[in-house]
Amino acid sequence: MGNLDFNPIFTPKSITQSFPGQVSRIGSLTDKALQVNDFVNRLESETRKIEAFGPEIPLCMLLVNHAIVELKEESMVLMNSSNAQQELEEFMPLKNTFDDGDANVEIIKDQKDKENGDKKNWLSSTHLWNTNEDLNQKANLEATQMIKKVKQEENKEKEETEKENAGRAIRKQRRRWSAELHRLFVDALQHLGGSQVATPKQIRELMKVDGLTNDEVKSHLQLTCKPTTPLRNILSRVIFFICGFMGLTFFLSFHLANSQLNEYYYYASCPNLAMIVKYGVWAAMKDDTRMAASLLRLHFHDCFVNGCDGSVLLDDTKKFKGEKNAGPNRNSIRGFEVIDNIKADVERACPSIVSCVDILTLAAREAVVLSGGPNWPVTLGRRDGLTANIKAANTNLPSPFESLAAITAKFAAVGLDSRDVVVLSGAHTIGLAQCFTFKHRLFDFKGTGQPDPKLDTLLATNLKTTCPNVAKSNTNLSSLDMVSTYMFDNAYYKNLVNNAGLLESDQALMSDPQTASMVNDYSMYPYLFYRDFSTSMMKLSNIGVITGLNGEVRKKCGEING
C-alpha cells in the first residue's frame, strides 16, 4: 500500500498575500490602483453569484468578504499615494535634470529602495522643499474614514439580512407539517432524485398542495435535510438517507401501503445496487456468453406467471412445488446461480433491502445492454412473492409449438398486445435453442414426413447436421440467430423476412399481415426496434408486481424467509 501522507505540491496563499505582491510590480501608482479596483469589482461580481449558497458555505463567504475589504484598503492607500505624487510632480517633475545653481533643492535617492519598488521608502527618502505633510495626513484621514464607512455599510447589510432570514423562519414555522403533508414531501423528494438536485419549486409542484409556498417547502427542506458541510457532492447520499430516516415516523403507515415503483427507490438505501448488478452480469457473461439470453428469458418466464414476483427463483418446499420443473422450464431455464451470486453481493452491501425480483429485473436489462442492445429505465420497489405456481407455469407460458393466435392470447392475458408479441420475440436475436424445439420442422412437419416448406432450404440443411433425426440429438443446441448469435441487433427480423426463422412460432410472425408489417419495419430500422423493445420491456417488468407491505424481501432468492 502506498504512503497515505498528504504532501502538497505548493503552499496556497491568500488573496491579500499574493495579489498585492503582483500589483507591486506595476510601475505607476495610478495603474496599481486601477488594477486593484478592477479586481475588487470582479470579486464582488462573483460574490453576488454565490450569495444564494451563503448558508452552506459560510467560511467561503467570510474569506471572500475579508479579501474584498483588504483590497479596498489597499486601493485607497494607492489612490492617495498617487494623488500625492501627482501634486509633487506638478511643482517639480522628477524626471527633469537640474542645474548646478539649484542649490535649494536636494534629491537623495536610495538605489536599493528604488529597485524594490517600495513606494513608502521612496517617498520618505526624497527630500523636497515642500514635504506636503498636511496633504498626506488629510489623505490618510480620508482613507480611514472611507474604510470605516465601507465596514459599517457591510455590517448594516449583514444585520438586515439576518433579521430578514429570522423573520422568514418565523413565518415559515407557522405551517404545521402533518404526517400526510410530510409523506407528500418525501415522495416528491424521492421522485426528483434527492435533496441535492431537487428545488423547492419542483417539490411544491409535485406535492400539489393548495396554499403551499416555495419558502415553506424550502424551510422544511432545510429543517429535514440541512447539510452541515459544503461538500454536497460527498454527503448527498448521506443527506438523503437522513431525510428518509427522519421522515420515517411521519409517513411509514401511509407510504408503505401505497408505494409505487420508482427508479430511485434504492437511491439512499442501496446506492451502489445498479453497479453491483452490472458487474455480476458482466462476470457471468465473461464465463458464459450465452448467459445474457438466459437471464432475459428467466425474467420473461417469471413475469408471465403470477406477475413479476421472483416466484420462478423458488425451490420446491413442503407447501408448494416451484416453477423450475414446469414443462416450459424443466432443463431449459438457467441463470439461477447468477442471481444468487448477485443477491449475496447486494446483501453484503445493503442487508435485507433489495428484493430478488428487482435484482432479476435489473439483470435482464444489463444482459441486453452488455450484448450491445438498448438501455431503458427500470423502476424499482417490487416485493418478492411468498409462493410459486407450477400449474400457471405449465399453462401461461407461450410455447414454440403454438400458433400465433394462441401466443397473442397469452400475451393479452397479462396486458400485452400484438406489437409486444413481435417486439419481445426479438429477444431471440441472442441465445440458443435445443433441437427438440424445432426438429419437427426438419423431418416431419405436421405429420407430412417432409421439412417445413417455409423454412429456408440452406438453413434446413445446416440444421440437420446439428440436429440429426435421432432422439439423443434433442438437447443439442443451435443459434436462434445464425447471423449474430450473441449480438443484440435486428438480424432476427431480417432472418424472418428471408424465411430463416428457427422456431415455428418465430416464422409465424410473417403469416399475419399486421405482424409481418412490423417485422419488415424492424428489419429495416434497428433503432425503431430498440425503442419499442425498451417500451415493451418496461411493460413486461410491471406485470402483477407486489409493493408496499405485501410480499417480502427474501434473504435468499431460492427460499422464502423463515
TrEMBL record:
Ca(2+) 1 binds at D302, V305, G307, D309, S311, E323. The record marks R297 as: Transition state stabilizer. Binds 2 calcium ions per subunit. Binds 1 heme b (iron(II)-protoporphyrin IX) group per subunit. Signal peptide: none annotated. It catalyses: 2 a phenolic donor + H2O2 = 2 a phenolic radical donor + 2 H2O. GO terms for cellular component: nucleus. Ca(2+) 2 binds at T429, D481, D489. Residues 136-176 form a coiled coil. GO terms for molecular function: DNA binding; heme binding; lactoperoxidase activity; metal ion binding. InterPro entries: Haem_peroxidase, Haem_peroxidase_sf, HHO5-like_N, Homeodomain-like_sf, Myb_dom, Myb_dom_plants, Peroxidase_pln, Peroxidases_AS. It is found in: Nucleus. The chain crosses the membrane at residues 238-258, 264-285. Its EC number is 1.11.1.7. Its main location: nucleus. Heme b binds at H428. GO terms for biological process: hydrogen peroxide catabolic process; response to oxidative stress. Residues 169-229 form the HTH myb-type domain. Disulfide bonds join C270-C350, C303-C308, C356-C557, C435-C467. Keywords: Calcium, Coiled coil, Disulfide bond, Glycoprotein, Heme, Hydrogen peroxide, Iron, Membrane, Metal-binding, Nucleus, Oxidoreductase, Peroxidase, Transcription, Transcription regulation, Transmembrane, Transmembrane helix. It comes from the Eukaryota. Its cofactor is Ca(2+); heme b. Residues 260-561 form the Plant heme peroxidase family profile domain. Substrate binds at P398. Belongs to the peroxidase family. Ascorbate peroxidase subfamily. This is peroxidase. It comes from Deinandra increscens subsp. villosa.
